[in-house]
Fold this protein.
Amino acid sequence: MKISARNTFKGTVKKVVTGAVDTEVTLEIAPGVEIVSVITKTSAENLGLAEGKEAYAVIKASDIIVATD
């Protein structure tokens, strides 16, 4: 796989919650570090996402906002 996005994180699928239209996918990219993404149900099915499977989080953003209290 070649991709132009610079922020890619390999991880393990920890949880898949399938809804009527969308699927919430939780990837563990390091011990105790998780990324959650919402993708279409069809995309999750096409990728064969299931707990324990390896997958990549690919983050493409033009802005990152940081805030504190």
Remarks:
- The domain at 7-59 is CATH 2.40.50.100 (OB fold (Dihydrolipoamide Acetyltransferase, E2P)).
